[in-house]
Design a protein that fits this description.
Elements lengths: L1 H10 L8 H14 L2 H11 L3 H15 L5 E14 L2 E4 L4 H5 L6 E4 L3 H16 L14 E14 L5 E4 L5 H5 L3 E7 L5 E6 L2 E8 L7 E6 L5 H12 L4 E4 L6 E4 L2 E3 L12 E6 L1 E8 L4 H4 L20 E14 L3 E14 L20 E7 L4 E8 L17
Parallel strand pairs: 1-3
Antiparallel strand pairs: 1-2, 1-4, 4-16, 5-6, 6-13, 7-8, 7-10, 8-9, 11-12, 14-15, 15-16, 17-18
């Protein structure tokens, strides 16, 4: 998943926020049900064989559920339409559906407005209101929507103090910005990494529930993708990091100064941090980055690509993510909702022939009751007043 984060960072543009952790479980379940080139491309994006993907996604979601402050959910909705006065529903392969979380499967009614409201309500509920809209556009041929929601909240072990941000960076200096500052005796919270793209300063901001935020500052002119990738490499131990207690005096790294100060009494070394508060939102079209996420062949609607999901031919019609992040004096919260929309693809494999008869006894009719072997009519009649439908009993719990 972190490798996917690094690849996405290389394709992201401008100020943004994104969650590979929100995309990965969806790619895993899609890969499990895909075939041919679509299966291979999704597996490459996942970083593991497609045959292992669904089990890995289940293990991932189970593990996430044990983390305090982290909430995840996965939902699936399939289309139900009315044809020839018979109710037909896209049928899922039982083995594939069994791999989904309990209660994850819902229904698309075909009423786009009502379905969008239902999907948005799921989004609001699963993110605690941090995101209010499912990032999918329902079209007439939408057969399936698969979505994930990820929400995290943490409080800082040591809160910041709010102040006006002091900066020489012209775009920020023009308009006053909310700054955060704090002092700590824990020098190892900061360090400088030597990365292929240049030196990167890393600050670890720890949360009370083991959900932390690492701030990363690269050298001037260093590309955002290089800094983000460096952060992933630091986590993997691929870059040497010089910790705070071992930093040399002077300009020790990007944005980092180490100097001696005179004081009136013995004081331990300290780490003084200044940063900017932020509250940002972003929306991503994942199909524009199909080389990163794998659904390249899967977009081809000339044929279906997911026989492991359903015999109904499906192709990926949309894939988006809405996400937000807020870093403040007391803590951090973030949320991401990712949705893949699958549309009908190609022509169903109609290799079998059958007959369907629709019979409607919806006006007065006659009947004969007889003995099968002797054909003896036992009772006959003509129906003009069918039995009324029972009136449902009123339940106060239904009137909520």
């Amino acid at each position: 998943m972190n490798a996917l984060t690094a690849r996405w960072a290389g394709a992201a543009e401008g100020g943004t926020v994104f969650s590979a952790a929100g995309v990965w479980p969806l790619l895993a379940h899609l890969a499990d049900g895909a075939d041919g080139a679509a299966r291979a491309e999704l597996a490459e994006a996942l970083g593991l064989p497609a045959g292992q993907a669904a089990a890995a996604a289940r293990e991932l979601l189970t593990a996430m559920a044990t983390v305090r402050g982290l909430d995840t959910a996965l939902g699936l909705w399939t289309n139900r339409t009315l044809e020839l006065e018979l109710e037909l529903e896209l049928e899922l392969e039982q083995e594939w559906e069994a791999g989904l979380p309990a209660g994850a499967h819902g229904v698309l009614t075909g009423d786009a407005a009502a379905d969008q409201r239902a999907l948005d309500a799921w989004t609001v509920k699963r993110t605690g209101g941090l995101i209010d809209r499912m990032p999918v556009t329902l079209v007439e041929d939408t057969q399936m929507v698969m979505a994930s929601a990820l929400t995290l909240r943490t409080q800082w072990l040591s809160p910041f103090h709010e102040t006006e941000l002091e900066t020489a960076y012209e775009p920020w200096a023009t308009t006053p910005r909310l700054g955060l500052q704090r002092r700590s005796a824990l020098l190892d919270r900061v360090g400088v990494a030597d990365t292929p793209g240049g030196h990167v300063t890393e600050l670890k901001v720890l949360g009370t529930n083991a959900l932390d935020v690492h701030l990363l500052l690269g050298g001037e002119g260093m590309q955002p993708a290089h800094v983000l990738r460096a952060g992933v490499d630091i986590l993997a131990g691929r870059c040497a990091v010089l910790p705070g207690p071992r930093l040399p005096y002077g300009n020790a790294g990007p944005g980092l100064q180490v100097h001696k100060m005179r004081c009136t009494r013995p004081e331990p070394p300290s780490l003084y941090v200044r940063t900017a508060a932020y509250d940002m939102h972003a929306s991503h079209d994942l199909l524009k980055l199909h080389e990163v996420f794998g659904p390249t062949t899967a977009q081809d609607t000339a044929r279906g690509h997911f026989p492991g999901i359903s015999a109904f031919p499906l192709a990926i019609g949309s894939a988006r993510q809405n996400t937000m992040a807020k870093f403040g004096a007391l803590g951090f919260e973030a949320a991401a909702v990712t949705a893949f929309g699958a549309v009908g693809a190609g022509i169903p494999d109609l290799r079998y022939v059958t007959t369907m008869i629709s019979a409607a006894f919806d006006r007065p009719f006659a009947f004969l009751a007889l003995h099968r072997h002797t054909r003896l009519v036992l009772t006959a009649g003509w129906v003009t007043d069918p039995t009324p439908a029972p009136v449902p009993e009123y339940d106060e719990e239904d009137d909520w």
